[in-house]
């Protein structure tokens, strides 16, 4: 069974994170992704640390399995190549500042007139409409404006950035959804579509409880450290050797937790009888629980709590997460094949496990800048099969 | 032009967050989503605060535009209805504990044999394979195990939960990608597919820089408060009336920032001449910048910095974010229509703006539990059009 996007050609004009992250997912689904880069320097993230033998581990982990050609989209000869690519492409993806494509003569109005089946995806900081369309943004700007920093951090403390770059990543994920929906629709309509995803919009869309609380009560929530704002106990706790979480989502789980801790009477204490009461007495309950948990290591508590059916888990560093047996069993940590003379890197696996999509044992390497120029020109001339072997 | 998923029927057996979030996005793309709920209580989140007139704002914001029928999947009469629905469905989505569907006789092996075109999506804490398949998980458990809490929080401080429920949300988003890829592929193969998304896997997949740093250097990053780990200055700063961010992604932006602050000589100081030098002197640089910014309000600095081409923005509460002119101009805050006798709520708009997908001025309401039983039975009997008006 071929992969779901077998035969689909993606022209990837994107750089840094939101766009490349989206294009990589399309490659994971089986599309041929041709990364069109600026001559000389290419994608900015080729210069992002950390490096191995002069190559960026960051770029490698985000761009595996793509082809690269460097094109100057202001030079006539390169524009001619680009337009031959457009005629073969199903999807064009870019994350320039709004207006940049129009400046090159490749705005949506021109593209859709010349290539009516082309699907055009644009990821930007604030979108292609609205009073601030055209302004630049970085991940942190939309984390700040979108509200997530205001609910992340210690209770009463200053705002904290989400450690993962969710300002970029979730925008890239929404773009993939739009592109796939447009591919499906094109088989029925015969027409492409433009998809316009704003990083700021995407931040609003993922904040379910903060939006519900703010709009229903008029009072926005603040940060609550490592605990859930409306469920108790649902937070980190200290064991003798580090942090772990207990997630007691209802009264039955709380009762089992008290038994597991050797304090069954806590479940009958009126201060802790309901979730509402536990939320009111959250700090004293935390001290009572930690008076038990601090005495023994995490492994003890996790085994004990799991035996009692209480959701729990270690707070892991990324090194621990990448060595987690369940993560490894799911094929989520993959070596990137190292061609002769190039360094070995590691990438995340594809979190979408589906029928027809084989689980690889390694990733194809990220391309060198302009490293596939000859291959791409051959392919355009019909001297290569449509879907190449992994580069 | 019809919406991209016009005519697609989704049976939504999901509850709480990851699954309902995914099903709602399919409704946003134009699918008919029939929520199949447990009789009596329905989706747990119908009981999640905050409430208005006895209805949950949380449930409303996550389930707008769906139909609801309550079915006891162990009772023969209800199973018969469910199987008639399966025969009409394109997609079945569930987020039970792995094995639950097999226990009901609706595991993938049975479903695909009887309904070969059915696409079956399962979201779970740890996935349907691996040593911990079958264990329950909540958002916070996978935030902890997946590593994101270890890189979120104050420098040197304890791990902090990401304020938005990204453990659930990004898993739901990956599920939507898988379902859409399978819909596209089905038009070519004639066959459905099973999609298995694990919340823990999804956490690994979104942590690009943490994975790259950990695997390339052997040392996992820790939390860095409100600043980017490898770019400086790229963090929050205090103005006289609150926090804002400055994101100086390269030397040119840093030089413009220094000019905007009235301290052009900082750009020539060897301690701050390169990003690497600025990272080394990050704390002194922050004090020097705040010695200027603390003297005036955020509005002054944002206007000044934007005039100099420096990416910046306020750290906003959710109330401020939902009133942000750019957010409103993008139609990202939508009233939910209130039928007679029911309360009014608010939901996020659809962040995927695309050709063929009209931007609504309001959301259809979330269904009452079993509120569409008669409509669903009529529809099965062919007494309703395939695609109803908004409920």
Automatic annotation (TrEMBL), chains A, B:
Keyword Transferase among UniProt keywords: yes
Q: Which residues form the signal peptide?
A: none
Q: What Pfam families does this protein's entry cite?
A: CoA_transf_3 (PF02515)
Does the record bear Transferase in its keywords?
Answer: yes
Query: What are the record keywords, sorted?
Result: Transferase
Name any one GO molecular function.
transferase activity
Which superkingdom? Bacteria
Q: What is this protein called?
A: CoA transferase
